[in-house]
Design brief:
Layout lengths: L7 H12 L9 H13 L1 H6 L10 E3 L8 E3 L2 E3 L7 H17 L8 H15 L1 H13 L15 H20 L9
Parallel strand pairs: 1-3
Antiparallel strand pairs: 2-3
């Protein structure tokens, strides 16, 4: 079962803030296809995502009749308004994310955001990467794997339970400090 896509709006907000002025336009579908071929031809991209086949390229559709750009494991579709580098990289990140992590991950989850940041670094440069990462932090977008919690040892757990019980008892027996309005 696929995870809920809880941070979609935050991702869109962060990228609007960060990348709108930094992206170069891609006027035609042929330009987008050349850009995609260049991205997937980069040694850094192939090294970063070893699960991707070397000869596999996503298909590029013109997005005719669509309001939004979209990316899936087989390719991307880009309508006229979205023909610039950052939207194409966003949709390619969906493609790579689903190819590498499978379909059970959230569409804009931390796995997607990690792939997205790497693609922005490799294709648009360090400055764009740093700005997007900063705005991910500002908008509270998760882009790293959640930390694993260490299991609590029973002695520490018993100590904390005892402290909580003592605090609750003290709170019940103490007279109210603020009796209310007079």
């Amino acid at each position: 079962m696929r995870e809920r896509d809880t941070q979609k709006a935050r991702v869109y907000k962060a990228e609007r803030i960060a990348l709108k002025e930094m992206a170069a336009p891609l006027a035609t579908v042929k330009d987008i296809e050349r850009f995609v071929k260049r991205v997937f031809g980069m040694k850094r991209v192939r090294a970063a995502f070893p699960g991707m086949r070397a000869n596999w390229l996503p298909t590029v559709g013109d997005g005719r009749g669509r309001r939004n750009a979209c990316g899936w494991d087989g390719g991307i579709k880009i309508p006229l308004w979205a023909r610039n580098e950052w939207v194409v990289i966003h949709e390619l990140a969906h493609t790579v994310s689903w190819r590498v992590h499978g379909y059970d991950v959230a569409g804009h989850g931390w796995q997607f955001c990690a792939v997205y940041l790497k693609l922005v670094l490799y294709c648009m440069g360090r400055e764009a990467h740093d700005v997007l990462k900063r705005d991910f932090k500002v908008c509270r977008v998760r882009y790293t794997a959640p930390r694993k919690r260490k299991p609590m040892d029973p002695a520490r757990k018993a100590e904390l339970v005892a402290r909580l019980a003592a605090y609750r008892l003290q709170k019940q027996t103490a007279p109210e400090a603020n009796p209310g309005p007079l």
